[in-house]
Design brief:
By secondary structure, the protein is an alpha+beta fold. The chain has one domain: NE0471 N-terminal domain-like (2-Layer Sandwich), CATH 3.30.2020.30. Helix content is about 20%, strand content about 30%.
């Protein structure tokens, strides 16, 4: 699979992150949903050598948490800065597209 190019634009609009991709697709992500789906070890936990997950945040919802900024990481990911101080999750472009698909109900 070819690597996705970086987004054309990323805007914080109300309680959503709006991403316009270079292929013209636009996705709108609720900020609290992005926080819940952060792929960080703080959020998802880490597996030990036996496959047991440790350190996962038990919360599945983060009401009121907003995105306060973002950083581009290389040519493959975005780090979102959240109002609760969380900032360790790297959202690959592919992962963001998958989240966008899920928010659309599976439609690409």
């Amino acid at each position: 699979m070819a690597a996705l190019p970086p987004p054309e634009t990323i805007d914080l609009i109300g309680n959503e992150v709006a991403i316009r991709w270079r292929d013209g697709r636009e996705d709108y992500y609720p900020m609290d949903k992005l926080r819940a789906l952060s792929p960080s070890a703080d959020n998802m936990g880490e597996a030990d050598i036996f496959g047991r997950i440790h350190g996962a945040d038990p919360r599945t919802e983060f009401p009121g948490v907003t995105v306060t900024g973002h950083e581009m990481i290389g040519r493959y990911a975005i780090r979102f800065l959240f109002s609760d101080g969380h900032q360790t999750g790297l959202f690959s472009y592919q992962y963001l597209r998958e989240i966008g698909d899920a928010l659309r109900g599976g439609e690409s």
